[in-house]
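Lecture notes, unit on protein representations.

Consider one protein chain, 345 amino acids long.
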Amino acid sequence: MPAGLRTAAGYAWRLVALGVAVYLAVTVLTRLELPLIALFLALVITSVLRPAVDLLSRAMPRSLAVLLCLLAAVLLAGGVLVLVGTTVAGEWSRLSDELHGGLGRIDRWLTGAPFHLPPGSVTDLKSRIGEFVATHRSALLSTALSGAGRVVELFTALALAVFCSVFFLHSGDRMWSWAQRQLPSRTRPVWQRAGRAAWHTFAGYTRGVLIVAATNAILVGIALAVLRVPLVLPLVVLEFVATLIPLIGSPIALAIAALVALAARGPVVALLVLGLIVVIGQIEGHLLHPLVLGWSVRIHPVAVALSVAGGAVLGGVLGAMVAVPVVSVAWAVIGALRREDASEE
């Protein structure tokens, strides 16, 4: 047998074995989706609240510091949700009138040049939606029940994440030390370096992306308020949450804001909101990300795009959200171990 063929065969069966291992790993992780989501959320909560807990623990018992920080976080998140609900309820009647008039304006705009659509193309949309709902009522009900089940699962994961984060915040260092003592002594330094690099990168990414999301939301809120677009606060919250998905989250949120502006304020304001996509993208890509995330996350934008796409294919929206931190942590661990090996040589 030629040497080249033997070499190719050796690589081939190794690649096949690696592919089978990856497939089995993805299958197992898919089955364990709920606890993995809870663990990821617990690590996010821990990375965000850990500095405040460390600061408060200097003046009070650590258990009390953990309790105060968690209560403050719950009150802040609940307050934002209540404020959003109150805003939507207060503006609903006025917004429905604006949307009704806006649909008429859009319809008149589309009937003229250069579109020349038939009159009533937009204003008949409500009746068409009603007919569609009446025709597919059973399928829509089944989808709604399935979505309600997913909401219950997410709340269960959130409760489990808060439970785990209490222990991570209170005694995470001791838990990590105990886990290391269960390993063979010769491998403990390697795990120590890998764990330090992984936590440094994950915590830096989490805090940084929250800062970027908050900055984007503030800029979008100011712009929407100046343009007098309705539902500013819900759109700001949507922008904050969507920015957690790199590259694609913020443009999608701003596109939704542009639709609201189109219906309520007309095409000119909607085009201005669409222009925010370019402005916010430039600020985020050339200022915020290098300034806030550059010290903790060092992966190429192409790797970020491929990670988001792969995560979305494997896990949907949640997969797209966790893909970049997972890839960043893996790359940081590989880099830390490689530098240590090079220094030993």
